[in-house]
Amino acid sequence: xxxxxxxxxxxxxxxAVWGLALAANATTVLLQEYKSGVVWTEPKVVAAGDMPGAxxxxxxxxxxxxxxxxxxxxxxxxxxxxxxxxxxxxxxxxDAFGDCQLHVEFATPAKVSGKGQGRGxxxxxLMDRYELQVLDSVDNPTYFDGSCGSIYKQxxxxxxxxxxxxxxxxxxxxxxxxxFADDGKVTKPAYxxxxxxxxxxxxxxxxxxxxxxxxxxxxxxxxxxxxxxLQFHGNETMFRNIWVREFAALVGKPPAAK
Length: 258
Ligand code: MG
Fold this sequence. Notes:
single chain, 5-stranded antiparallel beta sheet, 8-stranded antiparallel beta sheet, binds magnesium ion
């Protein structure tokens, strides 16, 4: 078994244990929660404008509202009326992506239940491990670096642009994948820029490593391209209109010598 396979198994086991705890509504703490200790200022609330978001011609459409055939475990989620509802497990793209522009639309459950991290929780995992949090963050206190638009346990969004429960919201993400040397050291960290409902909430934020519930962020070498995953966290959060574009800077030729 490779390190990556064992890591995936371990992560899967952790998620399964956490899922069981959620399912049983257990009060037993199975994992020791990691807390960064950083004291954040509360993100200011900003009302969003109208919805942007149609896919450009060269985008890879990952979900057009009809089926989740481009996702592993997509059959576990319910698709109806042009959107998908989280169920049973997380889902991951069958294809892998590196540097990319990603558009995702989501809505937290219209019927509000639970509180804090238990309300409308899902998440978008770039490269299967760097989470852009999805949460109902309207009048729902929780730690700021776990609120909607946060890079989980690393930084809150600069402002809180959340729409109300049941209303459709957008994420537009520009993600730069990390680069690793052969010995596993990071030669270039990952960076993320995020517009939430059209408003910038992260501007080229340097991701500190994988986003974890129970331990500090850390980089572990992985492939240059990895799947994008959507989290199942026990809440019926909805998704629609998901598309991605990989990008690479153009390389120009120097002017010809005269
Ligand atoms: Mg989450």
